[in-house]
């Protein structure tokens, strides 16, 4: 081969690598899911509903900006931003998606939040779709075509805002949307949305559907959901518990199931307990023992101690990332 031919081959190889590999492979620093900027810890329980960072951004831009800078100073470089929506009124966190579009205010709030994230210096985001109530196919007992079309339109609406922000990004098309073996309607939803989305946009900017525990069973549904067109990267959520084992066991079980099916994609760990030493140690050991590529980790705003006793969110803002940094994340 001539020298020019060798150069051309090298360029083509580099281009193929950069196309196939997500941007997060360039730097392993992760960060947090950033959904709430405040939680009111009251005697009767915890209230975080008025404080969603997207829906209520216009109420607290200075506070949110300061928190983004605190998190960045603590070593965080990537964020996962949950987008809560429903077929119903705004709540302060959950946005009205009736008709398949966010309001002009909420579109601006999302754009302004992403501009603040970019200005702070974050390298990448993942945005996850969190439909609530009737919009959430996890609770469907039968197919709802009207609601499916509304959700599909929201994905398009939000994607246009995210793309305009100029940040490297990935979309989780439905948070924890990879079904279990008995969730036939959820499987149908994920399969349909994957086909529709990739037909329009390909798969370069999406992790598909994140997988939570029990991950090994969900991994067995991959052929039914994705067919032969599997995402370039998987998003897995790890929460140690009495039923599924600790984070180390969950990780290894998931790796063994995926590898056994011939899936060797790198992972994003999209959720784990907040600044948790045991989770960080278990996940780091599992990476070493399996050789699984993990691009980065974003902690959820929930401590293992669960200070609100409802297994949702008990930390705001999620500033500390020290235990994960200490274990190489």
Summarize the structure.
The protein is 39% helix and 17% strand. The chain is α/β, with parallel strands linked by helices and 329 residues long.
Write the topology of this structure.
Blueprint: H1 3-20, E1 31-33, E2 40-42, E3 45-47, H2 61-73, E4 78-86, E5 95-96, H3 104-120, E6 124-131, H4 145-164, E7 169-174, H5 184-201, E8 206-209, H6 215-219, H7 222-226, E9 233-237, H8 247-260, E10 266-271, H9 277-290, E11 294-299, H10 322-326
Parallel strand pairs: 1-4, 1-11, 4-5, 4-6, 6-7, 7-8, 9-10, 10-11
Antiparallel strand pairs: 2-3
Notes on the protein architecture:
It is built from ten helices and eleven strands. By secondary structure, it is an alpha/beta fold. It has a single domain, classed as TIM Barrel (Alpha-Beta Barrel), CATH 3.20.20.80. Strands 1, 4, 5, 6, 7, 8, 9, 10 and 11 form a nine-stranded parallel β-sheet that branches. It is globular and about 50 Å long. Residues 1-27 have low confidence and may be disordered.
């Amino acid at each position: 081969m001539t020298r020019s031919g060798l150069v051309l081959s090298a360029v083509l190889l580099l281009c193929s690598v950069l196309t196939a590999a997500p941007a997060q492979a360039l730097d392993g620093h992760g960060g947090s899911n950033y959904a709430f900027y405040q939680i009111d810890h009251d005697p009767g329980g915890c209230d975080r509903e008025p404080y969603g960072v997207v829906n209520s951004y216009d109420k607290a831009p200075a506070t949110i900006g300061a928190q983004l800078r605190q998190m960045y100073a603590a070593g965080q470089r990537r964020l996962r931003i949950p987008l809560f929506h429903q077929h119903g009124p705004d709540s302060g966190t959950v946005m009205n998606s009736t008709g398949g579009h966010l309001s002009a205010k909420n579109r601006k709030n999302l754009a302004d939040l992403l501009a603040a994230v970019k200005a702070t210096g974050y390298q990448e985001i993942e945005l996850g779709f969190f439909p609530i109530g009737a919009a959430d196919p996890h609770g469907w007992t039968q197919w709802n075509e009207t609601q499916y079309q509304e959700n599909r339109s929201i994905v398009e609406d939000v994607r246009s805002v995210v793309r305009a922000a100029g940040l490297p990004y990935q979309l989780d098309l439905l948070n924890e949307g990879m079904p279990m073996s008995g969730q036939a309607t959820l499987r149908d939803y994920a399969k349909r949305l994957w086909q529709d989305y990739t037909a329009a946009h390909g798969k370069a900017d999406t992790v598909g559907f994140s997988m939570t525990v029990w991950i090994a069973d969900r991994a067995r549904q991959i052929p039914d959901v994705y067919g032969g067109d599997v995402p370039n990267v998987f998003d897995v959520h790890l929460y140690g518990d009495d039923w599924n084992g600790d984070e180390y066991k969950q990780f290894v079980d998931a790796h063994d199931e995926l590898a056994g099916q011939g899936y060797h994609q790198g992972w994003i760990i999209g959720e784990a307990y907040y600044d948790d030493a045991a989770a960080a140690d278990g996940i780091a050991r599992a990476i070493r023992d399996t050789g699984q590529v993990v691009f980065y980790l974003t902690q959820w705003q929930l401590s293992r101690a669960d200070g609100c006793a409802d297994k949702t969110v008990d930390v705001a803002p999620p500033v500390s990332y020290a235990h994960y940094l200490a274990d190489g994340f």
